Automatic annotation (TrEMBL):
Residues 39-164 form the Peptide-N-glycosidase F N-terminal domain. One of its GO terms (molecular function) is oxidoreductase activity, acting on paired donors, with incorporation or reduction of molecular oxygen, reduced ascorbate as one donor, and incorporation of one atom of oxygen. It holds the Pfam family N-glycanase_C. Residues 1-25 form the signal peptide. It comes from the Bacteria. InterPro entries: Cu2_ascorb_mOase-like_C, N-glycanase, PHM/PNGase_F_dom_sf, PngaseF_C, PngaseF_N. It comes from Paenimyroides tangerinum. Keywords: Disulfide bond, Signal. The keyword Signal applies. This is Peptidase. The lineage of its organism: Bacteria, Pseudomonadati, Bacteroidota, Flavobacteriia, Flavobacteriales. The keyword Plastid does not apply.
Length: 340
C-alpha cells in the first residue's frame, strides 16, 4: 500500500496519541500506587469507665502492615462516641499508647481532652493524629491501650482506626524512644510550684544520637492541671518551659492558648470550653511540640535537662508531660540511647 504524506501524518499523530495515553496512564498508576492507603480498625465502640466493674482503660492487640520502610505516613483517628449525652460530662484527660515489643513499655501516641457533655461527632473521622514517628513500632501484631481519667460509670466510648499511606517516606528508616513519660493521668504529672521527689521525676538525662542519623528531634506533649494560687496554675496560667542541652538553653515551650473558642466541637453546652487553658482545650487534641536537634550532635552524647519556670504555690498543680527523641536515616538506624 502506498503511503502518501497525508496518511503518514495521520499515522504519526495516532502513534503520538497512543504514547501520550500510555505515559499518562503510567503516571496515574504511579500516583495511585504512591497514595495507596491501608485502613486498620482497632478499638470498636470500646467503653472505659469507673465503677460497676469497669476500667478506665481498654487494651487490645491488632495487626498493622509489616513494611514500615515503605510507609510514607500514618494517621490515627479517634471517635469519641456520645450521641445522646450519656457519657461522662466533664473535660477529662485521655490518651492512647502503643506497646514497644522489645522493651514492653507503653509509648504515648497521642493525648486529647474529652468535650463537655458530648462526643466529637462534629468531626468527620474524630480526632486526627500524625503518628508516623512511631512506624518502627506500629507494625505487625501490636498492642494498644486507650485511657481516660473518668470517675463515673458513664465513662467514654471510643472507636480508633489508622490510615497507613504507602509510598516513598521522607527517610526510609526511623526509631523512637522516650526521654521521659510522666503522663499516666493529670494527677500523676509533675507537681508544679513545690519540691518534688527527684528519684521519681528525673529531668536530667544523657542522650546519644546515632552517627548515621540524617534528622533528629524531640517530640513533646504537655498539658497543665490544677487551680493553685496564685494564677490558677497550672491549668489557667501561661508559663514557659525550657530544654537545656549541655547546660545551654536551647528550646522553649510556652504554654499559651491554642484557640479553644475556634474548636469545631462547638456544641459543648453547658461548659466553659471556649476559655484557653495551658496548652489544651476541651474536645481537642493536645498539640505536639517539635524541637530539631542540630546535626553537630549526631554521633555524640550530650546532657539533656527539662526545666520549669519558677513558681511557688500553696495549692495542687501538675504538668502531665512526655518527651521522645526521634531519629531518621536512609540507612538502617539503631535507636537513640537515653540514660539517667
Amino acid at each position: 500500500m502506498r503511503i502518501n504524506k497525508f496518511n503518514l501524518f495521520k499515522i504519526v499523530a495516532f502513534l503520538c496519541a497512543v504514547f501520550t495515553f500510555l505515559a499518562c496512564n503510567d503516571d496515574n498508576a504511579s500516583t495511585i500506587e504512591s497514595s495507596k492507603i491501608t485502613n486498620v480498625k482497632t478499638f470498636n465502640s470500646s467503653k472505659v469507665a469507673f465503677a460497676d466493674g469497669m476500667s478506665q482503660s481498654a487494651e487490645g492487640t491488632f495487626v498493622f502492615p509489616s513494611n514500615p520502610e515503605n510507609i510514607k505516613s500514618i494517621k490515627m483517628y479517634i471517635k469519641d462516641i456520645c450521641p445522646n449525652k450519656d457519657c461522662d460530662e466533664w473535660d477529662r484527660y485521655a490518651n492512647i499508647y502503643v506497646k514497644d515489643k522489645q522493651t514492653g513499655d507503653y509509648y504515648e501516641l497521642g493525648r486529647f481532652i474529652t468535650p463537655y457533655w458530648v462526643g466529637n461527632e462534629k468531626l468527620e473521622r474524630g480526632y486526627e493524629f500524625d503518628v508516623t514517628d512511631f512506624k518502627s513500632i506500629l507494625n505487625g501484631s501490636t498492642e494498644l491501650k486507650i485511657y481516660t481519667e473518668t470517675w463515673n460509670a458513664k465513662g467514654r466510648t471510643y472507636s480508633v482506626e489508622f490510615d497507613f499511606e504507602e509510598g516513598t517516606p521522607d527517610y526510609k528508616y526511623s526509631a523512637i524512644v522516650p526521654v521521659f513519660q510522666y503522663n499516666k493521668s493529670s494527677i500523676d504529672g509533675v507537681p508544679y510550684g513545690k519540691e518534688y521527689d527527684t528519684n521519681v521525676f528525673d529531668f536530667l538525662k544523657s542522650v546519644s544520637i546515632p552517627a548515621n542519623a540524617e534528622v533528629a528531634y524531640f517530640r513533646t506533649i504537655i498539658s497543665g492541671w490544677g487551680h493553685a494560687a496564685p494564677g490558677n496554675c497550672a491549668e489557667w496560667c501561661i508559663k514557659t518551659h525550657s530544654i537545656l542541652l549541655n547546660n545551654q538553653q536551647t528550646y522553649q515551650h510556652k504554654l499559651s492558648g491554642i484557640g479553644c473558642a475556634e474548636n469545631p466541637v462547638n456544641n459543648q453546652d453547658p461548659g466553659n470550653w471556649q476559655l484557653d487553658r495551658a496548652g489544651w482545650c476541651p474536645g481537642m487534641v493536645v498539640p505536639f511540640r517539635f524541637d530539631n536537634i542540630a546535626k553537630e550532635k549526631f554521633g555524640t552524647t550530650f546532657n539533656f535537662e527539662y526545666k520549669f519556670q519558677n513558681y511557688t504555690t500553696t495549692g495542687e498543680a501538675y504538668y502531665a508531660i512526655s518527651t521522645f527523641v526521634v531519629v531518621k536515616s536512609n540507612s538502617p538506624i539503631s535507636k537513640p540511647q537515653v540514660l539517667d
